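Known limitations

Structure tokens in this collection are predictions and should be treated as such. Users comparing against experimental data should check residue numbering before alignment. To illustrate the layout, the record for Nucleoside phosphatase family-domain-containing protein is reproduced below. The input appears on top and the generated tokens appear beneath it.
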Amino acid sequence: MGKWRWGIVLDAGSSGTRLHIYKWKDPAKARKHASKEELHSLPKLVTNKKWTMKINPGVSTFGQNPSAVGSDHLKGLVDHALSIIPKHQIEDTPIFLMATAGMRLLPKVQQSALTHEICSYLQSHTDFSLPDCDLHIQIIPGETEGLYGWIATNYLLGGFDHPEEHDHGKGHNTYGFLDMGGASAQIAFAPNKTEAAKHADDLKLLRMRTLDGQRAEYKVFTTTWLGFGVNQARESYVKKLIEAYDSGASEIPDPCLPSGLRTTTSGEPIDDTSKTSLTLLGTGDFTGCLKHTYPLLGKDAPCVNEPCLLNGQHVPAIDFDVNHFVGISEYWHTTHGVFGEGDTAYDLKTYQSAVENFCSKDWATIAGQVNARKDRDHAKEAQEACFKASWLINVMHDGIGIPRLGLEHTANVNTSKGALEDAKHKGFLDPFQPVDKIDDIEVSWTLGPMILYAAGQIPPKSGDYLPVGFGSNTLEVPADFRYSGSSWKEDETDDDWDDTFEDLVDHAKPNKFSTFMSLILVILVLAYFFRKKDRRMRLLSKVNSVTGWSKKSGGSKKPARGLAGLANKLLGRTGPHYDRITEEGEADQFELGDTDLEENDHSDGSEESRFGRTSGLATPKLNDRYDGGSALDREGLFVRTESRDSLRLPMNMPITGRRSRAGSPTRKSPLATN
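Generated tokens:
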């Protein structure tokens, strides 16, 4: 196997399902050539804007017709993944589907039927590693989604690898995370030291590893509000609006719609000729809209465990002097969709002025501008913009308590000069900043579990067997610990021949074929003198897979001639050999931070593994090492899948769960865990 590991996450949200593909370098190989700075950093993941794809609507819409979810929904995503992952790596590439708020709202019977059908389809129509449905196809809790987003955000901002450059004061160097989609909203942040000590039992202990095996721990609070996404909030708003008027009314004024716009209660535009039992008529009153949406925050709900924010939900006090929040999904779309673009810092005064100006316009004027663009999605955004803006303003400033930038005092922060100037321009040192991308990389919570997974493949420092993952804030491994899902093994002493050859294949161009083949010949000659016989065979296999010389047209089994024949002689091989052709065209792959991704469409939005010798999700061999391994269960938990007899575990490491079902020798159980 080559030097890269791969992983696939299908983000199944309320509005659609989105494919994300990641790869990273095998830790054993990455450690060989890493600089001192890289050794103290987390693994570097790779992605590409061509590796993402979204299909609408969401998986949850198949709740009453689960048998159609494969052919009508997943097939396009699977086909796209198959076009990206090298063919010879497919059987060792794990695939996960993580469903969020849209699926959480379905009845349990429909959830079970859908997850069963999804796994059955993926198992029967693909060769990706998926030996256990319960481990790979799951509905993750909102708290887990929020924590994954917190990991992804701080990874991209550099707070993990370079904390000294992100000193916000009081020893605090991480950023808070806010996410809002169509059905739910999440918050995740590390409280200041005083609040962390006061609410220690409410925090999650997150553990990762840097490339040198050093443990990195963080204490994070995360919670979710189901029903507080923009679509669910709109439904609640319309319901209360109708209840406030006489039951016999045929037309109800709606201050959250542009003036003159008529819609059904479900939000579909209507004209004078349309027949409907009840019509909402927009009045374009943004101040009135703010007043009508404020009660939806549930600020008067009982607070059993002080302090509380929205709907009586407990949240430790937020110190905005050091907690600077990044908001994604609707926080970005609603502040930038029809109200402007750019990555300059957010302030409420400027934003609210833009909203009021837009919402006071007559719908005929707005519709004319929209129709000129011939963009149906933009028309929908314009129709919903006033309600969404009022909801976000209420949630952020009256619900969460974010200071009203432009209207209130902004705290000073401490940080390095270079980071300060860059962060100030982008607004990251303000209490709140909506983002779509960080350094041209899309901020998606799906990056979070893959960072944990890659970190879990790194061998720990000698004697440190605490696993990578997160759970209750205790010194030991708690019962609710959610493992990274990957295994680790000792560094290998293999040479770099495979890596060199793979790099040549990846970057070979058709118009440089002669030079490329000359390089291969040089490598083959050198390999004859420096490699053992079994490694010579592996190299020859790679040569044949690239050239296809060992497999003649029509399936004839004639001995290879020419360069392939010479290679056989040099490497001590005779007779025909058959191999799959190595996937080419990966020259445009690059690390996070160096590429654009497609438009941000988060799973819950109303609009929205570099390889090693074994797959990180594969069932380990006897010499594999584990941190107490496991994979994700349907509730977002990781459970162990290997018995103590088959693993080299510390004697004090608990084992739970069950072994994943055995597949073929090439499809190994994914979740030996870390």
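For this record: The first helix runs from residue 27 to 32. The first strand starts at residue 4 and ends at 12. Please report discrepancies through the issue tracker.
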